[in-house]
Amino acid sequence: MEEEMNTMTESNRSQKLLGKTLGTCTIERIIGQGGMGVVYLARQQRPSRRVAVKVLFSAEEMNSQVHQHYLARFRREADIIAALDHVNIVPIYEYGEQDGLAYLVMPYLQGGSLHDILTQHGQLSLQKTVEYMNQVASGLDYAHAHGVIHRDLKPANFLFHTDGRLLLSDFGIARIMQVDMAAGVTEAAEAPLTRTGMLPGTPHYMAPEMFRGEQIDHRVDLYASGIILYQLLSGRMPFDGDNPYAIIMKHMQELPPSLHQLDPTIPLDVDAVVRQALAKKPDDRFPSATDLAQALSNAAVSSAHVNGADLSDAPTLRSSENLPWTAVGSNEVPVQQTSSQRHSQRRGRHSEERKLVTILFIAVDAASSLDETLDPEDISASMDRYHTLVQKVISNYGGTFETLAGDTGMAIFGLPQVYGDEAERACAAALALREAVKSNQVQDEGLLLQIGINTGEVVVTGDSSTGKYDVKGEGVNIATRLQQAANADEILADERTVQAAQATYIFGEERPIKLKGRKQSLRASSLIEVHQTRQIDRPTLVGRRQDLLQLELLKARVVEEHRPQLVSIIAPAGTGKSRLLEEFLARIDDSEGFHVATARSLPYGQSLTYWPLRGLLAELLDSEIDRPRVIDAFVRGGHTPETAARLALDVLTTLSVEQEEQTESTEREHIFSAWRLLIESFARQTPRIVVFEDLHWADDRLLDLVEHIMHPRSQAPLLVIALSRPELLDRRPTWGGGQQNFIMLNLEPLSAVQTRELVGRLMAELSSEMRERIVERSGGNPFFAIELVRVMAEQENTGKGIRLDILPDTVHAAVLARLDRLAPQQRRIMQVASVVERTFRSTMLQAVLNDLQPGEINAALDALCLRNLIVPAEEGSYTFRHVLIRDVAYGTLSRAERIRLHGAIVSAFEPFATEHVDEYMELFAYHYREAAQLARQSAVPIDLPFDLNQALHSWRRRDRGNWLDLDFS
Which one, of 226, 243, 223, lies nearest residue 234 by Cα? Predict the structure, then answer.
């Protein structure tokens, strides 16, 4: 009776909200109720739409302590969902707290849940299960990539959108990970939001390590995915019992019943995949949800082939990588795939692309090779040490290394991802290799190397799931020839490498290198050493006067108010972050007494999370790093010798490989505080400017430390400047939020007027026509404009005719680096759009990429707009931000792929052309011509995807040849 009364009371309280307004929403009716609150259907005022409003019970309706616990979970859920933007995750529209009620506004999804599907059908077909698991994997891996463990996966938490998509919901007990994805390390952080004695999840779906109270990571979600997979295929739970304790013991001690024995129609290969997903040890499970879904799909297809069935149209994940904005799976399995669809799926595994890379070829000079009189075992051991040393050095600079015959090897910089500084990294690695092999005791007398470096385009065929790539092209041959032509202890670089790296490195005189089969000699130069200071001619700063003034005002406030100020400068590569900072620092007068220290993050070669702090500390100390100097800095900052010694130890711990694990597990807060106190100590002695460069490359744990430093606790003349690309905000949407002493400068591209001014200052004698072409091609990017002018000046100096269609390697690499960081779907869309031309429509992409759903394409286009790679144009069309982006995207496609896509565009729109001849004639003519010219340029015959003569004959009859003055010969 008491229970019934409580239920009636809760119901009455829930009814009281009907007709009321919470935030922007008017409550209409109850659509669900749970242990911590009620879900209402509501009408949002602006934008006008029906929404679901999740309202937490008030403090009056539950115990105060319980309410605080649930409120913390509720707020946490809002923060987590707001940071996740994916087509397979339920978004949040609004969060608020009003009249003692906390509420979440979310989409109103009427499609039911995966639990409802199981209730209706009992179990699902293998094909439908594969489809759903693909979508589960897509949303789940995205959450994991953003450091979120769900911890309560179950069918009821997967909701159906009206378009058929599965959306992951209910992040109420999710946990944030500290993630080092590159190292494969994930560590759950922050206090758990479950009360003592409560299980953090639903027992049927919890992993064994959760019951044991062990440290958890994203693999608890993979275990729960395995439970859901088992349930979808069998209609039953793998571990069940009369009470939670019985279920827990089965999770920890028993194997799940064999699916194949329960239902012989379930293939043994599929059974094996499910068993691996439900492994008791996390290390024995799949590394990611995508890997689980891909293994399931492969097992389903291979089993179907064995049994004579045809599952070729079963949906598959197109890549083992699942990055932000990647959505895989659809609500409807096509009856029959087109050749275009199958081709698109094959590309994810073994795609062929053109790439600009730098290749380093290395060998030991014959005169200093290993002593042949040594015992074979000694020679083998020495060679092992040599190869290990070379591998380590190459890896430190972000290259991939492959040992060839004997003491030769090849390193490639630009695989799997281009960063934009491949030539400079190859030069740095070559110098480091030469020194390391000389000084390392590979044998009693140091070895002398011959190294060749070449920058150029290659064709790359690779499997993204294994990281193995096959590289072909003249670039490999040239690097080999340069190595062979190098003298003992010499590094020979081709002229493209020299051009890209000469600002940082000193090269010798050019000399000709004869190449077999070539009439013209190759021009090459010896790499001597690194410049002591970077040699760059800086043009006058253009278009940044207001931004510079902001920095000047902040500096003045730091001095006048003796108060820290923080500024984050956000802009894409080449937009002028570093140039703005350089100009600002150059204007500081010595009399102001400012000291500058910089921490630089790199995208490669860092063995320590806090590696950039080593350079920062050295510049703060203005000397080599040692403990007495750090202690002295704390003492001069006002700390006692005992406290200073402890703080110095905390600071130096971050720079120690041996202490890395201890740092991450037990002393983070102490270390963060020590670094903040150290910087404030220096600032109290003399005004300081601390710069964090390229924070978009920083490890998440380093970002945590920087954010801690950006919350100063004491008064000191300190200006902290953080430079990053917009990718930082993808990872940290609330970066710098809530701080009174923080501002963010978002650098916009230069206007046409500003770009024209910049070009005029760089090359005053340039004709107005050429100036306008540079303005158009650079798209407001100062770096692109400067490089285009440089190439033109070089062409003029050498007496060559000026050509603007030549793309400088520096610009090519910068654009390619942006494309390489895109999710696979986004990158593919950029490539297909580049075939269409600079302006394109989403409908055209949908017609060509018919293995993707319209929602997936539109989501990817939205993401590309946010990344400033494309911009919306008129009536549903889009334009590349500047033509150079289109050129580089088009250049990544092989000739055969370009021809195929030109043909696919014609095929997709040919059915519509019969009634709109005039509208489509020019479009088809362009694509016919491009495909024909590409085929003609190829040394190896490439089949056209259409009969050109037949196509031309058909169009001649329709238009009487008026448009056929184009050259199709």
Answer: 226
| Lowest-confidence pick of 79-83, 588-592, 933-937 | 933-937
Start-to-end Cα distance in the chain:
91
Spatial distance between the Cα atoms of 582 and 577, rounded to a whole number of angstroms: 9
φ/ψ (deg, to 5) at 43: -110, 115
Give the torsion sign (CA, 493, 498, 500, 505): positive
pLDDT at 8 over 80: no
Please give the helix or strand (H or E) that residue 357 lies within, else none.
Answer: strand 351-364
| Residue 650 CB neighbours (<10 A) | 21
Q: What is the mean pLDDT of residues 766-779?
A: 81
Q: Which CATH class is domain 545-746?
A: alpha beta
pLDDT the model gives residue 337: 33
Q: Residue 287's CB: how many other CB atoms inside 10 A? A: 14
CA distance 469 to 401: 11
637 within 8 A of 681, measured Cβ to Cβ: yes
Joined tokens for residue 552: 């000047």
Radius of gyration over every alpha carbon of the chain, rounded to an integer in angstroms: 31
pTM score, two decimals?
A: 0.51
Q: Which fold has domain 114-336?
A: Transferase(Phosphotransferase); domain 1 (1.10.510)
Q: Name the residue among 861, 847, 840, 826 with its Cα closest to residue 905.
A: 847
> Which residues are CB-neighbours of 356 under 8 A, at least 6 positions away?
414, 418, 422, 455, 456, 457, 809, 812, 813, 816
Give the residue with greater pLDDT, 414 vs 352: 414
SS3 783: helix
d(CA 940, CA 601): 44
Is the separation of the CB atoms in 614 and 605 below 8 Å? no
DSSP 371-407: PTTS-HHHHHHHHHHHHHHHHHHHHHTT-EEEE-STT
Reference 542, options 753, 799, 285, 819; nearest CA is 753
pLDDT of residue 351: 64
Helices (H) and strands (E) in the chain, counts: 35, 28
Q: Are 148 and 176 in contact (CB under 8 A)?
A: yes
Q: Tell me, what amino acid is at 876?
A: G
CA 446 – CA 443 distance, rounded (Å): 6
Residue at token pair 């500024």? 567
CATH class of the domain comprising 813-959? mainly alpha
At 209, the amino acid letter reads E
Residue 22 parent element (H or E): strand 21-22
CATH number of 2-107: 3.30.200.20
Which pLDDT value is given to residue 363? 86
Confidence bin at 814 (pLDDT 50/70/90): confident
Instruction: Kindly list the catalytic residues.
Output: 152
As a whole number of angstroms, the distance between CA 698 and CA 651 comes to 18
d(CA 568, CA 735): 9
The number of beta carbons lying within 10 Å of the beta carbon of residue 561 is: 12
The answer to whether residue 222 scores a pLDDT higher than 90 is yes
The vertex-384 CA angle with 380 and 386, nearest 5°, equals 115
Q: Which two tokens stand for residue 152?
A: 């309560």
913: exposed, middle or buried (Cβ count in 10 Å: 0-12, 13-18, 19+)? middle
For residue 888, pLDDT beyond 50:
yes
Locate the domains of the chain by residue range: 2-107, 114-336, 357-530, 545-746, 752-806, 813-959
Lowest mean pLDDT among 102-106, 391-395, 605-609, 745-749: 605-609
- Element containing residue 239 per DSSP (H, E): none
State the chain's mean pLDDT as an integer: 77
What single-letter DSSP state applies at residue 125? Answer: -
> What is d(CA 26, CA 45) in angstroms, rounded to the nearest whole number?
8
| Cβ contact 97:37 at 8 Å | no
Over the stretch 519-545, which tens digit does the pLDDT of each residue have?
778 889 999 988 765 545 567 788 888
The CATH superfamily of 357-530 is Nucleotide cyclase, GGDEF domain (3.30.70.1230)
